[in-house]
Specification:
Largest sheet: 9 strands, mixed
Number of domains: 2
CATH topology of the largest domain: TIM Barrel
Shape: globular
Bound molecules: zinc ion
Radius of gyration: 20 Å
Strand content: 5-15%
Order of helices and strands: EEEHEHEHEHHHHHHHHEHEHEEE
Oligomer: single chain
CATH architecture of the largest domain: Alpha-Beta Barrel
Length: 323
């Protein structure tokens, strides 16, 4: 068989008892339900099995599924890892190196926690507007109305207002500007220093090593968690190489390393660089079931956890199966 369902997870936690119940995450009890559902209908495979199948040496079992966890949240170490370990299921964990090794918080997480901590989204939009007005005295920043025109569009999961905030702060403004705005909003809303928050949010390198020793897969997710399709070649090489050095340092095999594009940001240049460094395969955020015979191994699609039932008794989800 050549079909592979890859499922993507981000926050997996005991949401109701967490400090930020508004964070858009998967409650651990529903994660358990989903794994039980998958245990009934699918066969869990490892990244090693996927690599062997891509290389033609061993076909995948029917209804193969691979579990992937982005961004090295402590959730994955605290909740997911012990659970998967008990069931002898391999998870693949994609680590943004800087956040883990330098105790910083990714801009994307600053944005998530700002949104979870401040429920009045109109207030956030007004704050962003006034911060930009202030920065405009020294920087060329496009008119706020133009940003609204371009980015205030509802998505699969978010309202137009939330998408405006996310787009503007994730890529709609120059890096330096958007980082400063994300920083200010984070400090205003969370009121906690970045290093302490980072330690609370991400796993440590020691924890990464522990998971690797127990058979989990650890993969490349860049150093700074930048958009790989919005940077020049040297900068993408730097992102990938620094991340790869980290992986080798924690003990990942050079012969079987994989990547997951931050924000799903792939392009031909990024693929060339991965190929050149003999990356085995890379995961996107395109929505679908992978076909290892047909798909480019550097463009494997995934399903979001929300595309898969979270109820152990659910019938097989046919929606994406006939890909
Ligand atoms: Zn990520």
């Amino acid at each position: 068989m050549s079909k592979l369902t890859v499922i993507m997870y981000h926050y997996v936690r005991d949401l109701k008892r967490s400090r930020f119940p508004e964070i858009k995450g998967l409650d651990f009890r529903l994660f358990v339900e989903q794994i039980e559902y998958l245990r009934r209908h699918y066969r869990f495979v490892t990244s090693e099995q996927v690599a062997r199948s891509l290389d033609g040496s061993e076909p995948l079992p029917d209804k193969a599924v691979l579990l992937t966890f982005d961004d090295a949240y402590i959730d994955h170490y605290t909740y997911v890892f012990p659970f998967l370990n008990r069931l002898s299921i391999q998870g693949s964990f994609y680590v943004p190196v800087k956040a883990v090794s330098e105790n910083t918080v990714l801009d994307v997480n600053k944005i998530h926690f700002t949104l979870a901590g401040q429920l009045d989204k109109a207030y956030l939009v007004r704050t962003i507007k006034s911060l930009l007005d202030r920065l405009r005295t020294d920087h060329a920043i496009e008119p706020f109305e133009d940003l609204v025109q371009k980015f205030a569009k509802a998505s699969r999961y978010d309202t137009a207002e939330v998408m405006l905030i996310k787009n503007v702060l994730q890529h709609g403004l120059p890096l330096e500007i958007r980082s400063r705005v994300a920083d200010e909003l984070f400090v205003q809303t969370i009121g906690m220093d970045e290093a302490s928050f980072s330690r609370e949010l991400y796993m440590s390198t020691e924890q990464v090593k522990t998971m690797l020793r127990h058979g989990m897969h650890i993969g490349c997710h860049g150093y700074n968690h930048f958009w790989w399709n919005k940077m020049d070649r040297a900068a993408v090489e730097n992102e990938i190489d620094r991340s790869l050095w980290y992986l080798l340092e924690v003990g990942v095999s050079q012969d079987l390393w994989t990547a997951c594009y931050p924000y799903g940001s792939y392009d031909d240049q990024a693929i060339e660089i991965l190929k050149d460094r003999r990356c085995k395969f890379a995961l996107t955020t395109e929505v679908g079931v992978a076909n290892l015979q047909r798909d480019n191994r550097y463009k494997l699609p995934r399903l979001d956890t929300n595309d898969v039932p979270k109820d152990r008794a659910a019938k097989l989800n046919a929606r994406y199966f006939e890909h």
